């Protein structure tokens, strides 16, 4: 956080440094433009219509989202080009919601199985506008996605089910390694996997115009090649994990939870009024403790309770005074944002705006 903390905040609160966040958004948009990539940021990290508009104004083509309800929230906020970057398995209710969505926005959905493609095709059949599909391939994260060579078979099933197949995507989650080599390797894996997927789609007589990759750790590793669309999410705020793995600098951290020191039970320990119900409980193997206190770099959050963070100090190091406020940078920013009603927007030490977390809890 570049700015000083505002005074008199009711804590805990999530604050966003407007200048740092805007800088992160602008730099990513410029880098994508310069590299010839379409930028379709993943909105699960901010879930906020204000930030989505900033990304779109800066040149993002549309948004990636994780769920149908995130897509609905951003569609209501006026975003008209959305990619649900995950396979979905629509029941009757979800089928109806997908059709309604597709009537109002350009909608693209991930598919990674023949059965899933058929089910999605059945779900959206008869809608006013065609739904586009991207075949998800696994580039090494071992989450969702078929082997790249199987993209043709899934794509064909999607096309036969009435979907408009436009290409493939992958999520390089294995780029979250400590060494720069992990990111480099994951970026190369994406390039290779999407190249093979494109070939398999074309061999099946399908289009492979959209080859979408990129997460915050790998996005800076791109060179002009196969990939033509990027979907970073966390870069908007960054977090302690991105700092630890070297994806961002301390000056790029745009979001923190502001907490009050509510107890100093011992000289080497203090307790903050922020716990897992605000910070989330995601842990990163690369972050010491459960978050970062930039003003007290030697302090370690050793445990998070629901409403308390217990912080330890090395012998002889002074901590903050009882009643003072401190900033805590979360290990992984997406969960705290999802737990908050609003983001307090801060500039030059003042709260200048309050932005609702538009798609808070939109998990269905
Ligand atoms: C499918 C997909 N695309 C893009 C992203 C964005 O990556 P990151 O959060 O590393 O910025 C994610 C994150 O989980 C994802 O699941």
Described by the principal axes of the CA atoms, the overall outline is elongated
Mean pLDDT: 96
Q: What radius of gyration results from the CA coordinates? A: 21 Å
CATH class of the largest domain: Alpha Beta
Uncertain spans, ≥5 residues at pLDDT below 50?
Answer: none
Q: What ions, cofactors and ligands are bound?
A: pyridoxal-5'-phosphate
The CATH superfamily of the largest domain is known as: Alanine racemase
Quick summary of this structure?
Belongs to the DSD1 family. This is Alanine racemase. The chain has 364 residues and is α/β, with parallel strands linked by helices.
Overview of this structure, please?
The chain contains eleven helices and 17 strands. It is 31% helix and 24% strand. The two termini are 33 Å apart. The relative contact order is 0.17. The protein has helices spanning 18-35, 49-57, 68-76, 92-104, 114-124, 151-160, 180-203, 216-219, 240-245, 276-279, 334-339; strands at residues 13-17, 38-39, 63-65, 81-87, 106-111, 132-136, 164-169, 210-213, 229-230, 255-266, 269-272, 291-292, 300-304, 309-312, 325-330, 342-347, 350-356. The strands form two sheets. Strands 1, 10, 11, 12, 13, 14, 15, 16 and 17 form a nine-stranded mixed β-sheet that branches. Strands 2-9-8-7-6-5-4-3 form an eight-stranded parallel β-sheet. By secondary structure, it is an alpha/beta fold. It has two domains: 37-232, Alanine racemase (TIM Barrel); 247-356, D-serine dehydratase-like domain (Lyase, Ornithine Decarboxylase, Chain A, domain 1), CATH 2.40.37. The chain binds pyridoxal-5'-phosphate. Pyridoxal-5'-phosphate (PLP) is lined by residues 42, 45, 64, 85, 171, 215-217, 231-235. Keywords: Isomerase, Lyase. Its EC number is 5.1.1.1. This is Alanine racemase.
């Amino acid at each position: 956080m570049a700015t000083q903390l505002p005074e008199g905040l009711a804590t805990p609160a999530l604050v966003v440094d407007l200048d740092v966040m805007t800088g992160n958004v602008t730099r990513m948009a410029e880098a994508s433009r310069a590299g010839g990539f379409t930028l379709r940021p993943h909105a699960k990290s901010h879930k906020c219509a204000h930030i989505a508009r900033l990304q779109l104004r800066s040149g993002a083509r549309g948004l990636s989202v994780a769920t149908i309800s995130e897509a609905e929230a951003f569609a209501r906020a006026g975003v008209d080009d959305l990619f649900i970057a995950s396979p979905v398995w629509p029941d009757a209710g979800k089928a109806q919601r997908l059709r309604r969505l597709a009537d109002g926005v350009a909608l693209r959905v991930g598919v990674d199985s023949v059965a899933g493609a058929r089910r999605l095709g059945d779900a959206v059949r008869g809608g006013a506008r065609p739904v586009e599909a991207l075949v998800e391939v696994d580039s090494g994260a071992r989450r969702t996605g078929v082997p790249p060579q199987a993209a043709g078979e899934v794509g064909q099933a999607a096309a036969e089910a009435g979907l408009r197949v436009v290409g493939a995507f992958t999520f390089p989650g294995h780029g979250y390694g400590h060494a720069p080599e992990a990111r480099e390797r994951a970026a190369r894996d994406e390039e290779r996997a999407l190249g093979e997927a494109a070939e398999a789609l074309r061999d099946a007589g399908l289009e492979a115009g959209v080859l979408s990759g990129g997460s915050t750790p790998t996005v800076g590793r791109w060179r002009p090649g196969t990939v033509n669309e990027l979907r970073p999410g966390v870069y908007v705020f960054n977090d302690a994990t991105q700092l630890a793995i070297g994806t961002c600098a301390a000056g790029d951290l745009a979001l923190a939870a502001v907490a009050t020191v509510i107890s100093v039970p011992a000289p080497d320990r203090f307790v903050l009024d922020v716990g897992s119900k605000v910070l989330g409980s995601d842990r990163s193997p690369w972050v010491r403790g459960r978050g970062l206190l930039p003003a007290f770099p030697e302090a370690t959050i050793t445990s998070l309770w629901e409403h308390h963070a217990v912080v330890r100090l090395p012998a002889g190091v002074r901590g903050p005074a009882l009643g003072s406020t401190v900033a805590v940078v979360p290990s992984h920013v997406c969960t705290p944002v999802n737990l908050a009603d609003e983001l307090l927007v801060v500039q030059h030490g003042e709260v200048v705006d309050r932005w609702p977390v538009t798609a808070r809890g939109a998990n269905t």
